[in-house]
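Researcher: Checking consistency across runs. Here is Antibiotic synthesis protein MbtH again:
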Amino acid sequence: MTEEANGAGEQQFVVVINDEEQYSVWAAERPVPAGWRALEISGTRQECLAHIGTVWTDMRPRSLRVAMGES
């Protein structure tokens, strides 16, 4: 199997989330910035973005959803 096929050599990322329940990807080797926390989801950038695409279906910040009476 080639490096490209098995993912070796690709930069690894983690999925991070903030208090407003907004998601992002962050390079795994870097410290997570203040105000964000890492989830237990990691992989290539594309894998992390694919996960975010399935779970982050409402792009409104949490504070806006709460103000509108939603959770």
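Researcher: Does this match what you'd expect to see?
Model: One thing to look at in this run: Residues 3-67 form a domain with the Rubredoxin-like fold (CATH 3.90.820.10).
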